[in-house]
Structures are given as structure tokens and as C-alpha cells.
């Protein structure tokens, strides 16, 4: 394996590695526009030039393979001068309209110019005018041709990753412009990614643009709950301006790199599926038409549970858990309903229609934790039977986690259930049609407010982190069940979700080698049992 | 002096196969295919000191020897007939007046490199060349000089004539390959070089028309004969295209190493109307310009390189003392700005910027700092780009500014040009 020195630091890398890859491994940041680790090398921006000892000319780091004994400098005066030179060229026809550009604050032209700019401008000529500014090229993305530096990342993304080839560079010389092909729109399931990889303000996201300057954004690591792929994401939320955008907290989602799951990408369905975090939330416990306190809510359930317990009828409890819940939630549900409360009928496999899917990141199962729910709940009750029993009056307590039964079984069925069962509890984060039939509605937190883990379709257990506190009086699902258990006199004694996960690892063999520390950012695969 | 490549120029119907055959046509091909091994052919061409006449001057035999024969992929020969370098019009003569000389060269070259398919990529504006070349190819197929088992040997060869679409950059060999593959003419990153990964990902030799037309005479008469014609490391004759302010512009076949003075004054008839020479471009517009005191230079690759210019494509553009050098520089800069492919940033943005800067100078709208900045801007393009186009901008435009700076200065602040 070639051994080389970059800026005085030694590194050994496999043959065929490029200088920029080796530098990335060392944590040495070589500026880049056209280079993207997941796309074929194009070598057109020329800003990643480095000085290689014994080579008369500067070399582009993105294309030059390492060699044994190579000595590379990424910040010599010659290299810095090259950065200045390329930046100056890139700005010759750039409008420099940063004050009205949504990219400002996360623009690589700005960032690199701050570091290595010429500052005293020599650009006094009229700029080449390009046609399309604030131009819609599809349902999700806006194009600004004059801000484009023609790095062709988006072209290569649609050519190589989505293979939809909407983009091209048209015309020649400094009249070259990025555009979609005539008659085409940027309309594929992964269109939002081109905004992420665009290093400048040429491609901006219709959903996000002008909502929030990026320097107001806080970032929290998470996992997309939109399907069983479990793409790693970053929640970007507005931490300091609650008066903006109907008090919405989350401004956008962006993919987080995980080479074993989603690489650098996420689908549009997942990307734009965040409004439920702030909209249409259940914020307070509610019994029929009355808002009640958590104490009252817990008491209401505990009275029913006690009577079932005393009459040896705990099997008249039906629980519809959900694969939207975290492993921790599900484990507490298991402990309480299948342990403390012996004989309760628990299942999560509601008869959902499969969603659309592709051979990349979109999975037909739209739940983030089906694999986790299987291995933790080990269900055997069957949802259909529970529903039938509830209609037939054979269930006294029906406890539903987040499912919209109206959508799944129809109004008539849910209406019958509401009449037949003694207590119909709906515990969920958002209002749906089932809420109006349920006797008791309990507000639970959404994934963005939770700490926990999801198990994706690869059986990879991945962590989510809480970005902010639950809205209103909402509580984590496990916490609500813990309250029930405590009130019933059998405390589950979990302080937090980490404690639950420790118990999971101690109890269930597939999780036995895991801990939050070990899961870290990239997750771990369940052990085959 | 014996003419080689231009021996049939100007003769009636010189492009017809029957006339080409009268003068031992295709006998060199027959000799190579029947009496020589491919390695012997390459060796002969190496010894002849034939160098690439498209402009780079790379030794031709050496280039052929780079083809990896162990590679199981098909090998291709591509003839670069894009001839877009301003001041150059020699290949056009070969294509239109002696197309069979090129075809015979193609047959020999294909045999030497183990290729069975050759493409002739002809500049799209060369309508007549395209027609003549296609006619010649058809004739050669009929006469069994192309096709299956040519000339009774077991060797197969197909030749395709392909028109370009009007971009100067497609004369750059890897851009040409992209264009030939049906893509936009963007130069490729190198390495790999075309000899290893070329057309359709296969080993490919790309040679200029004139280079390949020189091959049959070398095989016929031997490498020593050819090498002796030229200068030390640059064998044979060369077609010089003389244009601009001369009495007799045209294509002149002369030995490599003939002085520029001799070409301008003895062969092209000197400057008309008794005017004085002011400047001369020795090898196409990309070559740095020369001043009258430099015209005793020998016209070969090494001698021109030694004085900071280049032999390039052999396009000699003569400018007399009526020429406004700022105007000339503007025309050159405009050409490069128009023809930059736009792939990499220094050339895409720099070439247009340089043009607009010089245009402002020419129009008298410039300030002193515009001229002071110009050499730096021009210098920043070359050496930083994917292909040699950027270097050409730097070298050529830069030479006008450095050698005729007083004329540029005269344009500043309302002062009028001295001419």
C-alpha cells in the first residue's frame, strides 16, 4: 500500500486512492466544488489543486492517484494562489447576489472566499447574462443559472445515481448554462438531493427557500421514520425564532452520510415528510370532550385495568402497538402488557397497504421499526382478531398506538368498537379520524422529540436523538406506559430510554452486544437468534 | 526539391484512384502487408523521425508503440482532420487532392497497430473534403484496397468518414473522441491516454492527416531517406500554410528546418507593397507570436520551442506594419473565448474575461490597471486546465501583450494608436 505525506502527516492508503480521499482520511480539508465522494470524478472546477513534490505543475487532488513516497502540500503559497485564482474566475460571471440568495451561509463560494479570497476585486466587466433566474425546473427545485458554477454535480447525480438524466450543460464557453433537457422536468423521487450537493445557490429547495437563514438552524441527528430503510438524516430546526412560520420548529431534513444505509442520499418522500412534527398535534390528554390532566388520564385507565385484573379478565385487553414506535417504547409495552398484565392480546401488524418502492432507498413498508417490533413483541395475537373481538364486545380495554383505525377498518367498524369496549384509548402524536371515536386521547411525542432506536429492514439498530422537548403535554410512549405501571403498583423503574435499551440488551439475545455507545452514529445489525 | 505529400497537388483529378495508382499507388501498403511485420513498420516510422504534424510534434512511431497489443479489445485508428487552428489549411489539400495517400497511410498504420477500423473525423465545415474523402473511400472499397482481405492479403480494414459539428475543441484529441462517440466535445482527464483507453474505451491511435499521409513514402523509400530530408530530430518535409500579408499566400511543402525568413521572402514572395514585417505567428494561432528579429529561426519543433514559440500546425500568419497589434490580440482572444468548451473554470471564465478586457483596451475604454492586470489574468489560465486549450490562450494572447506592450499602452486614456 502506498505510503505518502500530506502537509507533513504520514498516511498509508490502498493503491488507487486519490489525494483528496487520502487527505479526507487525515482530516485535511482540500477545497472542492465538483468533487463529491459518491459521484464520478469530473475534475472541472480546478480548485482542489495541490502541490506534489517533483511535479512542475499543480495537480488536481480529486483525480491524481497517490503514489508511494509522494509528498503533497495543500496549503503552500502556490496552492493558496491557485485557490484565489480559481475563485476569481468562478466569480467573473457570478452575480454575487448573496443578500437575496438562499444559499448564503452555506455557500462554498462564500466559505472559500473567506479563506482565500483576493478581496480587492479586479472584475469590472459586464457579466454574461443567463436566462433563467428563480426558474422552476420541477415540483421541488428552483434553478438560478447565473449562480451556477457548472461543477456538474447535479448532472452526475441524475446520470449516475437516479439514472434519470434530467440535467445537461448547454452551450459553450462562458455562455454555458445548466438546464434541464427541453421538455423535461426535474421530477424524480430523489430530486431534493441535488440541492444538498449544489455547492452554491444555483439549485434551491422550494420547500425551504426563504423560510429561514441557515445560521438560525440547529442540527440534530436522527433517522427518517418514513419507511423501513431507516435513512440517516439530520433534523434542521429553528432554535430561536418561535414566532416564525406558524411556530414550526423543523425547517428541513437532510440526509446524513451512512455508507451502509443511504450513503449521502434520501428520497423526497422522506425529505418533505416533517410537517407532522409541528402540525396537527395532540397536545393534551382528553377524555371524550374534556381536556384532563395526566393524573386523571392515568387514573381513568388504571380503574379499568384494576377491574380486569380483579375479575381475572386481563385477556379482555387488546393492544394495537405500532412499528412507528421505538424499540424502547415497544419493550416497555411488552413488559407491561405481556408481563405485568398477563394475557393481554398485543400485536402491531395492522393490515396496511404496501406503499411504493424502488430498488434504491424507498421501501414498501412505511414503518421505520417493523424489524424491531417483530423481535421485541414477538406478536401472535393478530390485529384482525383483536378488532373482531372488540366489535363483538369481547374486549373491555382497547389500547391503540398511533394507528388510524378509521382508515384501516372504516367508520362503521370503529363506531361499533367505540360502543362495545369499555375504554377505547388512542395514544398518538397527531390527530386523525380515530381520535373522535376514542374515549381517551393521550398525546405522545414524535420521533424528533425522542431518544431511542429504530431497527431498519437490514435489521440495523440505529439511534435517534431528541431535537427539542415534546409539544404541549406530550410524553414519550414508554413514559406513559411507565406511569400506568407505577400507578398500578408495579414500577418499571426506567429513568430514560438508555436504561430501557440496557434492559433490552440484557433480555433479548439479538440485542445482546449493543449499547447506545456502541451503536454510535452508524448503528449495528441484530444478531441472528 | 522533391515534393512528397504535395506531389499530386494541382494535377487533374488527383483525387481519383486510377490516377493515384499510376504513381505506384498502394504499393507501400502492399509492401508493408506482405513483406513486413507490424513491429518492422513501427520501427521504420520511428527511425524516420516522423513527428505528429497536427501540432504537438510527438514522435509518431513511439505513439504507435504505446498501443497495448495484449489488450483483447479492438484497436482503433482515428484520423484527426478537424483542422480548426486558424491559419492552417494544409489537411484540406490532402483530403481534397490526394485522399488515397491518406487512405494508404491508414492501411499501413492500421496494420502496424493491429487495428481493423479507422475513423476519419473531418471538420464539419469542410463540405468538399467530406465529399471527396467519401468518394475515395468508396473507390478504395471497390478496388479492394479497403474492406475484407484487402489486396489479396488476409487483412481486413474498414474506414468511416465522420463529419464534425463545428467546434474547434474537437481538434483536441480526447474531445474528438467524445464527439465521435456522440457526446459533447469535452476533453477528457488524462491519464489514461487514448493509446490505452481511447475511442469507446479501446486502445486508440489518433494522428493528423498529414502525418499519416507521410507514412506511405517512408515505407516506399525507407526511413533513412526521410529522416535526412528534415532537421536533426524532425524528419521529412512539412506543409507550411502561409497567410496574411504576403504576396503569394498558400501551402508550401518544405523541409523541416527551413528558416521562417526563407518561407516568407523566398517562397511566399515577401510582404506586398514594400511594407515592413511587424509580426508573424509561426504555427497556428495558438503559437506565441514572433517579432521580425526572430524570423531566422529554423522551422522545426525543437528550434521554435527553443525561442519560446511552437511549430504547431504549420500555419504561418504574417502581419505587416499596418497591423494594429491590439486589434490582432483582440481577434485572437475573441476566437478563444468563442471556442472554449466551457468545461473547466479557468478557461471558461478566463477566456471571455481576457477578450472583454482587450476589447475595452482596443475601444479606448480601458484604464491603466486593466493593462496591468491583463498579463496576470492571462497567466492564470494556462497550466490550470484539463486540456492544452488554456495553455494556448496564455501563450498566444500573452505574447501579444508582452511583445507589443507599447501599442497596448497607447490605447489607454484616450490616447490614439500610433498607426
Explain the overall architecture.
- The complex is a heterodimer of chains A (529) and B (419).
- Chain A has 529 residues and is α+β, with helices and mostly antiparallel strands.
- Helices cover 26% and strands 17% of the residues of chain A.
- In chain A, the strands form six sheets. In chain A, strands 15-14-20-19-18-16-17 form a seven-stranded mixed sheet, sandwiched between helices. Chain A has a five-stranded mixed sheet with strand order 2-1-5-3-4, sandwiched between helices. In chain A, strands 6-7-10 form a three-stranded antiparallel sheet, with no helix packed on it.
- In chain A, strand 8 and strand 9 (177-180) form a beta hairpin.
- In chain A, helix 7 (294-310) packs across helix 13.
- Chain A is elongated, with a radius of gyration of 28 Å.
- Chain A starts with a strand and ends with a strand.
- In chain B, 43% of the residues lie in helices and 11% in strands.
- Chain B has helices at 17-22, 27-35, 38-47, 60-65, 90-97, 99-113, 127-142, 173-180, 209-213, 215-221, 223-229, 260-267, 301-306, 325-339, 345-362, 368-381, 389-403, 405-410, and strands at residues 76-81, 117-122, 158-163, 204-208, 237-244, 250-255, 277-281, 315-320.
- In chain B, the strands form two sheets. A four-stranded parallel sheet of chain B has the order 3-2-1-4, sandwiched between helices.
- In chain B, a hairpin with a 5-residue loop joins strand 5 (237-244) and strand 6 (250-255).
- In chain B, helix 3 crosses helix 6, helix 14 runs antiparallel to helix 15 (345-362) and helix 15 (345-362) runs antiparallel to helix 16.
- Chain B is globular and about 75 Å long.
- The two termini of chain B are 41 Å apart.
- The mean pLDDT of chain B is 95.
- Chain A binds chain B through residues 41, 43-47, 49, 57-58, 63, 82, 85-86, 88-90, 92-93, 122-126, 128, 149-150, 169, 171-176, and chain B through 167, 184, 189, 337-346, 348-353, 356-357, 360, 369-370, 373, 377, 380, 383-386.
Amino acid at each position: 500500500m502506498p505510503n505518502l505525506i500530506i502537509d507533513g502527516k504520514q498516511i498509508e492508503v490502498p493503491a488507487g486512492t486519490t489525494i483528496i480521499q487520502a487527505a479526507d482520511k487525515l482530516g485535511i480539508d482540500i477545497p472542492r466544488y465538483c468533487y463529491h465522494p459518491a459521484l464520478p470524478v469530473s475534475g472541472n472546477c480546478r480548485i482542489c489543486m495541490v502541490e506534489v513534490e517533483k511535479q512542475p505543475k499543480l495537480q488536481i487532488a480529486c483525480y491524481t492517484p497517490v503514489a508511494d513516497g509522494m509528498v503533497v502540500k495543500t496549503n503552500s503559497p502556490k496552492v493558496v494562489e491557485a485557490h484565489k485564482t480559481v475563485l476569481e474566475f468562478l466569480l467573473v460571471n457570478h452575480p454575487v447576489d448573496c443578500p437575496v440568495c438562499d444559499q448564503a451561509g452555506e455557500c462554498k463560494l462564500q466559505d472559500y472566499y473567506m479563506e482565500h479570497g483576493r478581496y480587492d476585486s479586479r472584475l469590472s466587466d459586464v457579466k454574461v447574462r443567463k436566462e433563467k433566474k428563480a426558474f422552476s425546473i420541477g415540483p421541488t427545485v428552483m434553478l438560478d443559472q447565473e449562480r451556477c458554477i457548472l461543477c456538474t454535480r447535479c448532472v452526475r447525480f441524475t446520470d449516475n445515481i437516479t439514472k434519470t438524466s434530467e440535467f445537461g450543460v448547454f452551450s459553450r464557453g462562458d455562455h454555458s448554462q445548466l438546464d434541464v433537457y427541453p421538455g423535461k422536468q426535474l421530477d424524480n423521487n430523489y430530486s431534493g438531493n441535488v440541492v444538498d450537493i449544489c455547492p452554491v445557490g444555483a439549485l434551491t429547495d422550494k420547500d425551504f427557500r426563504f423560510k429561514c437563514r441557515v445560521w438560525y438552524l440547529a442540527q440534530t441527528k436522527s433517522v427518517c421514520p418514513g419507511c423501513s430503510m431507516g435513512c440517516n438524516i439530520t433534523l434542521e430546526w429553528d432554535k430561536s425564532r418561535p414566532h416564525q412560520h406558524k411556530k414550526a420548529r423543523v425547517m428541513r431534513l437532510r440526509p446524513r452520510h451512512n455508507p451502509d444505509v443511504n450513503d449521502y442520499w434520501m428520497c423526497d418522500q422522506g425529505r418533505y415528510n416533517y410537517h407532522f412534527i409541528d402540525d396537527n398535534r395532540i397536545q393534551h390528554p382528553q377524555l371524550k370532550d374534556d381536556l384532563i390532566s395526566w393524573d386523571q388520564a392515568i387514573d381513568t385507565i388504571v380503574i379499568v385495568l384494576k377491574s380486569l385484573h380483579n375479575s381475572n379478565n386481563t385477556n379482555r385487553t387488546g393492544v394495537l402497538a405500532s412499528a412507528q414506535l421505538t424499540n424502547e417504547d415497544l419493550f416497555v409495552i411488552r413488559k407491561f402488557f405481556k408481563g405485568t398484565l398477563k394475557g393481554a392480546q398485543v400485536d402491531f401488524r395492522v393490515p396496511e397497504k404496501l406503499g411504493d418502492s424502488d430498488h434504491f432507498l424507498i421501501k414498501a413498508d412505511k414503518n421505520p421499526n417493523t424489524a424491531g417490533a417483530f423481535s421485541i413483541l414477538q406478536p401472535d395475537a393478530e390485529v384482525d382478531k383483536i378488532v373482531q373481538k372488540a366489535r363483538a364486545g369481547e374486549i373491555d380495554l382497547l389500547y391503540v398506538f398511533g394507528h388510524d383505525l378509521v382508515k384501516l377498518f372504516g367508520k362503521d367498524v370503529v363506531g361499533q368498537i367505540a360502543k362495545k369496549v369499555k375504554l377505547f384509548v388512542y395514544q398518538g402524536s397527531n390527530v386523525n379520524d380515530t381520535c373522535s371515536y376514542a374515549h381517551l386521547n393521550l398525546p405522545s411525542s414524535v420521533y424528533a422529540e425522542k431518544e431511542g432506536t429504530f431497527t431498519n429492514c437490514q435489521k440495523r439498530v440505529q439511534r435517534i436523538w431528541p431535537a427539542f422537548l415534546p409539544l404541549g403535554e406530550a410524553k414519550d410512549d414508554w413514559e406513559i406506559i411507565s406511569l400506568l405501571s407505577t400507578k398500578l403498583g408495579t414500577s418499571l423503574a426506567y429513568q430514560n430510554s438508555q436504561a430501557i435499551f440496557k434492559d433490552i440488551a440484557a433480555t433479548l439475545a439479538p440485542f445482546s452486544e449493543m449499547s447506545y455507545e456502541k451503536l454510535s452514529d452508524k448503528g449495528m445489525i441484530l444478531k441472528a437468534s | 526539391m522533391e515534393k512528397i505529400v504535395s506531389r499530386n497537388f494541382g494535377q487533374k483529378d488527383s483525387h481519383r484512384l486510377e490516377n493515384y495508382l499510376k504513381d505506384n499507388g498502394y504499393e507501400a501498403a502492399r509492401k508493408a502487408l506482405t513483406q513486413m511485420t507490424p513491429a518492422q513498420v513501427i520501427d521504420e516510422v520511428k527511425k524516420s523521425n516522423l513527428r505528429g504534424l497536427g501540432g504537438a510534434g510527438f514522435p509518431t512511431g513511439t505513439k504507435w508503440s504505446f498501443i497495448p497489443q495484449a489488450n483483447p479489445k479492438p484497436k482503433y485508428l482515428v484520423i484527426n482532420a478537424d483542422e480548426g487552428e486558424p491559419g492552417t489549411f494544409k489537411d484540406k489539400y490532402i483530403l481534397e487532392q490526394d485522399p488515397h495517400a491518406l487512405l494508404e497511410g491508414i492501411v499501413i498504420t492500421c496494420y502496424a497497430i493491429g487495428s481493423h477500423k479507422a475513423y476519419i473525423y473531418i471538420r464539419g465545415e469542410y463540405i468538399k473534403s467530406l465529399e471527396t474523402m467519401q468518394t475515395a473511400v468508396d473507390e478504395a472499397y471497390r478496388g479492394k484496397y479497403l474492406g475484407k482481405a484487402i489486396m489479396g492479403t488476409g487483412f481486413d480494414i474498414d474506414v468511416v468518414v465522420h463529419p464534425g459539428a463545428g467546434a474547434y475543441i474537437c481538434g483536441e484529441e480526447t474531445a474528438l473522441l467524445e464527439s465521435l462517440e456522440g457526446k459533447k466535445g469535452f476533453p477528457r482527464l488524462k491519464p489514461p491516454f487514448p493509446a490505452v483507453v481511447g475511442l469507446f474505451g479501446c486502445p486508440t491511435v489518433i494522428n493528423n492527416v498529414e502525418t499519416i499521409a507521410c507514412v506511405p513514402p517512408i515505407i516506399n523509400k525507407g526511413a533513412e531517406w526521410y529522416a535526412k530530408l528534415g532537421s536533426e530530430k524532425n524528419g521529412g518535409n512539412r506543409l507550411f500554410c502561409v497567410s496574411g500579408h504576403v504576396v503569394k499566400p498558400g501551402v508550401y511543402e518544405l523541409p523541416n528546418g527551413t528558416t521562417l525568413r526563407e518561407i516568407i521572402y523566398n517562397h511566399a514572395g515577401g510582404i506586398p507593397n514594400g511594407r515592413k514585417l511587424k509580426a508573424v505567428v509561426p504555427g497556428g494561432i495558438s503559437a506565441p507570436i514572433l517579432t521580425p528579429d526572430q524570423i531566422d529561426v529554423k522551422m522545426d519543433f525543437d528550434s521554435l520551442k527553443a525561442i519560446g514559440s511552437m511549430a504547431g500546425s504549420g500555419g504561418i500568419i504574417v502581419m505587416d506594419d499596418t497591423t494594429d497589434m491590439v486589434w490582432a490580440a483582440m481577434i485572437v482572444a475573441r476566437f478563444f473565448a468563442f471556442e472554449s468548451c466551457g468545461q473547466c473554470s479557468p478557461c471558461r471564465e478566463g477566456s471571455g474575461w481576457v477578450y472583454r478586457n482587450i476589447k475595452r483596451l482596443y475601444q479606448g475604454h480601458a484604464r491603466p490597471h486593466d493593462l496591468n492586470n491583463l498579463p496576470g489574468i492571462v497567466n492564470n489560465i494556462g497550466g490550470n486546465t484539463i486540456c492544452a486549450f488554456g495553455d494556448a490562450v496564455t501563450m498566444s494572447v500573452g505574447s501579444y501583450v508582452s511583445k507589443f506592450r507599447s501599442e497596448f499602452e497607447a490605447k489607454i486614456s484616450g490616447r490614439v494608436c500610433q498607426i
